[in-house]
Amino acid sequence: MDTAFARLPTPPYYAVIFSSQRNGADEAGYAAAAQRMLELAEQQPGYLGAESARGADGFGITVSYWASEEAIAAWRAHAEHAAARAHGRAHWYGRYELRVAKVERAYGHASRE
Question: Quick one: signal sequence residues (predicted)?
Answer without folding.
Answer: none
